[in-house]
Every structure is written in C-alpha cells, then in structure tokens.
Design the sequence.
C-alpha cells in the first residue's frame, strides 16, 4: 500500500505532526489486482485522521463517524472542490456541490421534481424494459463482460430516457461517458467532456425552442418549469445541472453494479438465497452498498480549524472514502461479513454521502440495482465468475471494475 515510498520533510507541511504522516495514493493504491477491500480495511491500523503526502498532500479520515461528520459539517468543509487533487472547473458549476445558500436554489428541484419516488414512478418500467433488452442480447451466449455489456450502457440508457431522448440519441452518449470516466489520459477526458456537453447543449436548445416536445421524460419539463429565485432557469444553469446529473448518476451506479454482481457471482449461497426469496433483494442491495463502498470524494477545509485534535489549514483537502467507512471495524465489528438475513432491517452506510449534499439520485440507483438482481438472477442460471476474471480495479472518484467476466448455463 505504498509504505515503502520515500517521504522527505519537504513533503510534509510544518503544522502536520510526523506521527500522522503515512503515504496513501488512493488512485494508485486502490487500483490493484489484489483485494481492494483489504487495502481499505488496512486503514483500521492508521490514526483516525492522517496526512498523506501523495497527490499534492491531503488528509484521510479512517473512521465512519468522522467521515460522516465531514460530510455533514459544511460550515467547516466545503464541497466546492470534491476532487483530490483539485481539478480545474469545466466552466459549469455543479449546483449540488455548491455551498449554502447557493446550494438550496436547485436542490429542491433535484430532490422534489426529478428524483423523488413520485417523480421516478414511471421510470421503473423503462428501467426494467432496458434491463431485459440488454440481457436478451447476451443470455444465449452463456458468458459476457458484464461491465462492458451491461453495467456501463444500462444506467446511461435509463438516465437519458429521463431526459426524453429516443434510443438512438441516448446511445450516442455511451462511448463518450465511458471515455470520460475511464480514460487516464487528460486530453481524452477533456475531449469526452466537451462531447457530452455538446450533446447536452444541442438537446437543451431543442427543448427551449419547442417546450411542447419535452414530454417523454420528466427532467426537461422540470428544468423548463424551474423558478430559482422566482425567475426561469438560465441555459447556463440548465447545463450545469445536466452535467451534474451525468457526473453523479452514471459512473457511480455502473461501479456499484459491478461490485455487487461480482460478489453474487462468486458466492453461490448468497446468489441462491436471493433466487429462493426475491423479497430479500432490497435489503441485500443495502448490505452490499455498505460492504462495497467505492466512492472517494473530497472536501476542502474552509478556514484553519482544529478537528478531532488535528490542526487543518484552509484550502487543504480531506478524503472521505466510503470504502474505508464501510470497513471501519469500530463501527462494524464484523465488517467483512455479508449477510442478507434482515435482522432489524436497517443498514447504516454512507454510499450516498450524508448531510445537505447527500446524493439526490439515491432512489434511482437503488431502483436500478434492485431491478438488475430481480431480472438477471432468474435468467442467468448457475451464475458464476469466469476463470479469466481477475477482479482488477481502477480507482479515482470511484473504485471500479473495468472488466467483469461472468458465466452461466444458457437455456
């Protein structure tokens, strides 16, 4: 995990105690062909908060309650920069990561008119239809790369249907979304970002020119009807919100799908329990969201502050990793265990963050994960991992599986 990397005093700010310094590059160290969860679990042996000199230097919280506190205490930790190291803005502010009071202007639109259970009531049928159609495409083969053939296209297809886009237009996003989230070459990511923005720009222009055409999905009507500060939303604000949705709703769901499907395919007893009793599936989704946390998001220290006995300076970054939170052995004494029996029916986790910036798309993500298991498990008989599956992960904002090779007995 990088313990042998050489650290010089030049790498350590003067206010950081030497006994709190440990090398940890979450982008490199979580990208492994070994057990990525063992690396997250090893953070139990680190201080509650430590300083990593990697990636320009940043703080790492290792205890779930502290991570939750960083999420919640927006007066201490700003969300205006969530990437480590900080990345230059695309020029389109992400309204859900704005700090108060700007944050509230669009949050109600996201929570109440785009992603509430009521707003998404009509989306489940489309999500189930898309899921069945994609599975139809590979079911007879008895094998697939689940990451490439299902987990990447399905969330894009469903999500763009919420914009009212037809199937052909939706699919135009898939290669660009994949390049944006998967490429390690900055120029390729910028190219993909610009292509996505161009597609969104064209679609928004069409809806503004003819609002009556925005009837098939519910996102564009909500944007056109939005009245932040009592006025219509500007096109810049619409673009900002749409780009936020692309950033937040696609790669995260894709990554979580691969982790959950890999676990199910590799654990026949858990697989069969869900086949025998599909009513367990919603709870199983929550259990796996806790166990396979895969979000690495940052918060920026607003002002100099002493936090849990650690002196932090304004502008420094704090890593909040849900992979680390979900395997905190002081919060979860049997953190590695995965049990689908309901117990008290509640699973505390931070897969969608916490506080005012909690993910507005949580209900949609849960729906898609549930539908995946409900539709795939009965059809992919004797589901299992293929011999060539490695479990190799890549890490950035998400810890993702770029490939997931699975097999089953074709009908």
Sequence:
């Amino acid at each position: 995990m990088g313990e042998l990397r050489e650290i010089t005093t030049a790498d350590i700010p003067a206010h950081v105690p030497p006994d709190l310094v440990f090398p940890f590059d979450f982008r490199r160290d979580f990208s492994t062909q070994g057990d990525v969860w063992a690396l997250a679990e090893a953070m139990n042996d680190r201080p509650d908060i430590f300083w990593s000199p990697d990636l320009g230097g940043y703080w790492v919280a290792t205890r779930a309650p502290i991570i939750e506190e960083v999420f919640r205490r927006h007066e201490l930790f700003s969300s205006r920069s969530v990437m480590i190291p900080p990345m230059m803005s695309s020029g389109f502010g992400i309204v859900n990561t704005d700090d108060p009071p700007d944050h509230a202007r669009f949050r109600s639109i996201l929570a109440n008119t785009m992603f509430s259970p009521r707003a998404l009531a009509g989306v489940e049928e489309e999500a189930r239809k898309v899921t069945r159609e994609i599975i139809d495409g590979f079911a007879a083969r008895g094998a697939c790369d689940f990451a490439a053939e299902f987990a990447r296209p399905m969330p894009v297809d469903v999500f763009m249907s919420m914009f009212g886009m037809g199937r052909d237009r939706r699919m135009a996003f898939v290669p660009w979304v994949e390049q944006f989230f998967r490429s390690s070459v900055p120029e390729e990511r910028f190219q993909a970002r610009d292509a996505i923005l161009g597609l969104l720009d064209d679609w928004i222009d069409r809806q503004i020119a003819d609002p009556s055409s925005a009837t098939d999905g519910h996102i564009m009507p909500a944007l056109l009807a939005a009245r932040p500060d009592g006025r219509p939303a500007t096109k810049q604000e619409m673009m900002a919100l749409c780009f936020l949705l692309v950033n937040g709703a696609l790669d995260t769901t894709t990554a979580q799908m691969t982790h959950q499907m890999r676990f199910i395919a590799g654990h026949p007893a858990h697989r069969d329990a869900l086949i025998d009793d599909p009513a367990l599936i919603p709870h199983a989704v929550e259990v796996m969201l806790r166990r396979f946390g895969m979000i690495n998001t940052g918060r920026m220290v607003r002002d100099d502050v002493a936090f849990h006995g650690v002196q932090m300076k304004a502008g420094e970054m704090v890593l909040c990793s849900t992979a680390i939170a979900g395997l905190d052995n002081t919060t979860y004494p049997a953190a590695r265990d995965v049990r689908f029996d309901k117990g008290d029916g509640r699973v505390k986790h931070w897969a969608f963050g916490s506080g005012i910036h909690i993910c507005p798309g949580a209900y949609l993500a849960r729906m898609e994960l549930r539908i995946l298991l409900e539709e795939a498990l009965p059809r992919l008989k004797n589901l299992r991992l293929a011999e060539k599956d490695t479990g190799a992960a890549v890490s950035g904002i998400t810890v993702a599986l770029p490939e997931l090779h699975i097999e089953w007995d074709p009908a």
About this structure: The first strand starts at residue 49 and ends at 52. The chain has a mean pLDDT of 88.
